[in-house]
Amino acid sequence: MTIVTPGIVPASVLLAEPRPAWLEEWARFAASFSLDRLEPEVVAQAKLVMLDCVGAMAAGMQEPELSALVRRMARRGEGNVAAVGAGIRLRGDDAAFVNGVAGTTLELDEGNQFARGHPGIHVLPAALATALEGRRSGADLLGAFILGYEIGARAGAACRLRPTVHPHGTWGTIGAALATARLEGADEPALMEAVNVSATLSVAASLRSMLEGATVRNSFCGFSNRNGLAAWDLVASGFTGESDSLRSVYGSILAEGFQPEVMVEQLGSRYELQRNYFKRHAACRYTHAALDVARMLLAKHAAIDPAGIVEIEVETYAHAAQLDSAEPSNMLAAKFSLPFALATTIVHGEASVPAFRQAALDDPAVRSLARRVTVRENPAHTALLPAKRPASLTIRLADGRVLTGETMTNRGDSVDPYTPDEVREKFFELTVPVWGQIHADKVHAAIDTIDLTEGTEALDALLASPPRAAAR
Hints:
Shape: globular
Number of domains: 2
Mean pLDDT: 95
Structural class: alpha+beta
CATH architecture of the largest domain: Orthogonal Bundle
Strand content: 5-15%
CATH class of the largest domain: Mainly Alpha
Largest sheet: 4 strands, mixed
CATH superfamily of the largest domain: 2-methylcitrate dehydratase PrpD
Radius of gyration: 22 Å
Number of helices: 23
Low-confidence stretches: none
């Protein structure tokens, strides 16, 4: 039968296509993967990423809406997996969900500039739940986490999401499913099936949610973890997926193109978590280049009176320039407002968690300065993506001075990384207020030695400890 309507391909043509070669190669790689064969630097980086994710989860769990969500989840019955920093254990799928939500709430979770998203927090909650319920070793957990991160990050790098799609809740589902399947001993065919099923369980995540401050956006990563677990449950029960679902979903539905060669480029010799970034500014990564320049100018020129700033001009790449709203409605919207992020950084000296809370949102000095920030795209900056994330700042002062600065990269990127000690310092900044120094030290030590432990019960017991405020 001949079809003349554009975009509709006959089933006889679609079904004649073979299983993609990259997926078979990936399944062989994942099935034979061994933590023992990795370079020590890869293992060390994986532990740092895991540590960073746990810190983000524990701190995010203290937000009022997370506390309320955990209480609602517990109404369905408690389980044996920690809701990190909440002082309660939930069913595995519920714990994976709330931990994923908590990990993105403060906008401090690590990410990957080549994937254009946050692979770690899309994988770790599901992997933690699966490892604990399956009584797997710490080395099994760490290895599965590395694999899940790897395939999720590569899927993100291989596609070009539509401009209206938020990366949270999309390709991260594949990483969660692969880590889960690996922990449950899946063979090559089952691993391929898990990838194909999970790709079709991605969230239709709207980018506008983050711009409006619609906090449902914080749930997208939680759904990736929950749906990754569900994908494996389906495969283990006999359900099947499309033969090439990544191409379907990320070639034409959620994205505008899929490059399968990226999925296996230097597979096994280049690990994507070594090309990750860590965050110190509690705001969208797209604001970080401008915030880095602002911090540099603040340090160089000592005190800059916000009231003496006439105007701030920002030139940056397209995705950052999109964040031009100067009137955020809540904390989440403020984290995705480049004018507000700059203003609160200058007023408070840093883009810390408190710098985006209600007191800062209500601060007339911050609000006034944000309205004096103009943002525009520089196409030359956009052309440098994804390897570079440039921004140029011009600050015009009432006394006639003009301060300028520029950066091509963000602090924390793989080309300008934070040191391991700086990442650990961030972890303690996030977790000491939750658990206290002694307990935070124990969590750090448990993650640092995770590959040497017979099980994950000890780590879960630490993560299940109640926050200090609840313990009093």
